């Protein structure tokens, strides 16, 4: 149980392109999903918290107009990197939190490797 | 500001022996701690967790110890197996939401 699917797994595109990444909880409902970014040899850094039916909460330094998050249902959150540039190249990972209670593990997707040429 | 620290970037252990991975944190508000295992090009997989009201949690070969006064936790794997070779991330959260991750420790278990 607790499977999170993230798609696509890898994207290579030209500078200026917008890229959409999907995160789905396959066997549970997730009121809250999270988007992280990981640089080489670094820890996962939280970008934003996505709550179903409301606006995402962005961490300091993350441009909300650059990284558009939509959490339209209890099983799907999307991250759109708008007008991507080479500095946006990174590994993006989503996670989902089952239920509403605290002290539960987040379950992660397999990540999306984004490469902007 | 790194609130969760894993000071050993790598660890090598012989098969059958104990692996001990360490983690320190600075935020006293953290009340839930987790260990994740990660293979290259995959997302982290949840391994084991511990609430701040406990000092030990065991699940098969994996045991997590929490020392709140020292703001330290550790993951013990015994016996270690070659399939345990991966990067292990320590994470902590306050009130069960956003996770703060350490930089990870790469464990290599040799036959």
Please tell me about this protein's structure.
The complex is a heterodimer of chains A (117) and B (111). Chain A has no helices and 11 strands. In chain A, strand 4 (30-38) and strand 5 form a beta hairpin. By secondary structure, chain A is an all-beta fold. Helix content of chain A is 0%, strand content 54%. Chain B is mainly beta and 111 residues long. Chain B has no helices and 11 strands. Chain B has strands spanning 4-5, 10-14, 19-25, 32-38, 45-51, 56-59, 62-67, 72-77, 86-93, 100-101, 105-110. The interface between A and B is medium-sized, with 28 and 25 residues.
Describe how the helices and strands are arranged.
The complex is a heterodimer of chains A (117) and B (111).
Chain A: E1 4-7, E2 10-13, E3 19-25, E4 30-38, E5 44-51, E6 57-58, E7 67-73, E8 76-81, E9 90-98, E10 107-108, E11 112-116
Parallel strand pairs in A: 2-11
Antiparallel strand pairs in A: 1-3, 3-8, 4-5, 4-9, 5-6, 7-8, 9-10, 9-11
Chain B: E1 4-5, E2 10-14, E3 19-25, E4 32-38, E5 45-51, E6 56-59, E7 62-67, E8 72-77, E9 86-93, E10 100-101, E11 105-110
Features:
heterodimer, A: 117 residues, mainly beta, globular, B: 111 residues, 5-stranded antiparallel β-sheet, 11 strands
Q: Which pair of chains forms the biggest interface, and how many residues does each contribute?
A: A-B, 28 and 25 residues
End-to-end C-alpha gap of chain A: 37 Å
DSSP strand content of chain B: over 45%
What characterizes the major β-sheet of chain A? 7 strands, mixed
Quaternary organization = heterodimer
Sequence stretches where pLDDT stays below 50 over 5 or more residues of chain A: none
Helix content of chain B: under 10%
Question: How many E strands of chain B?
Answer: 11
With helices defined by DSSP (H or I, 4 residues minimum), what is the helix count of chain A?
Answer: 0
Mean pLDDT of chain A: 90
**Could you say which structural class the secondary elements and strand pairing of chain A correspond to?**
mainly beta
Amount of beta strand of chain A: over 45%
Helical fraction of chain A equals under 10%
Shape by Cα distribution of chain B: globular
What is the first-to-last residue Cα distance of chain B? 38 Å
Strand-pairing-aware structural class of chain B: mainly beta
User: Order of helices and strands of chain A, N to C?
Assistant: EEEEEEEEEEE
Shape of chain A: globular
Q: Roughly how many Å is the radius of gyration of chain B?
A: 13 Å
Instruction: Tell me the major beta sheet of chain B.
Output: 6 strands, mixed
Return the average pLDDT of chain B rounded to an integer.
Answer: 94
